């Protein structure tokens, strides 16, 4: 492992943080909508003018935050590639330094790499 191996666990920690912040809000607003719908059958209109729109906006925000948290927790490969974009010679999965390696596979984790990025980052051979 090298100095970039911390990126993947950090993305997972951010995913857990986003889930932890969004799930209570998401659950709260879902229960509020269900409660309003249940009481509306007895008392009439469930939402006042504009209330449903605000509930949906809050649900959309919490839902997208939850979805991003799940993505970072379980996948996150595109974000990891974006974060390590300036470091083209590192493996996107484990962060292993690929400069000078032969072939298109990472010797540490076995992930297939783009050989063009590795070869382009290596200095030209001296004549």
Structural class of the secondary structure composition? mainly alpha
Q: Overall mean pLDDT score? A: 77
- Radius of gyration, in Å, reads 23 Å
Strand count: 0
Put simply, the count of helices is 4
What is the straight-line distance between the termini? 33 Å
Helix content: 55-70%
Secondary structure elements and pairings:
Layout: H1 7-43, H2 51-74, H3 77-83, H4 115-121
Can you walk through the features of this model?
- This protein is mainly alpha-helical.
- Helix content is 59%, strand content 0%.
- The protein has four helices and no strands.
- Helix 1 runs antiparallel to helix 2.
- It is rod-shaped.
- The two termini are 33 Å apart.
- About 6% of the residues have low confidence.
